[in-house]
């Protein structure tokens, strides 16, 4: 896996992934940014949510659960010292579908957290306390 990051101006950067997708990162105006994109640390948090959600969707589909939506809401605390690393992250999954089995959803969340999510393992190994919970919403129709 590869990526490149190119400085655009002030505190704005363009990141390009090896799959040729681009993301603009920018700082807040207080640091000279123009708020043109997410902050780099926000991307790390979003990447964790995407990685975990990918696992959960895949696991639930394999277990033949009729999911219609999965949303991951993340809340993170950061150190007040520099570097301002994440200290705690909580992932709350809202899983929507038809006749979903709570046991299957719980297992999918646990497997993602403990076995499959590379981003979660990397952050946890770096000292971040990561917690998870979920709720199930019955899909209409």
TrEMBL record:
The lineage of its organism: Bacteria, Pseudomonadati, Pseudomonadota, Gammaproteobacteria, Moraxellales. This is Osmotically inducible protein C. PANTHER family: PROTEIN YHFA. Signal peptide: none annotated. It comes from the Bacteria. InterPro entries: KH_dom-like_a/b (IPR015946), OsmC/Ohr_fam (IPR003718), OsmC/Ohrsf (IPR036102). It comes from Acinetobacter qingfengensis.
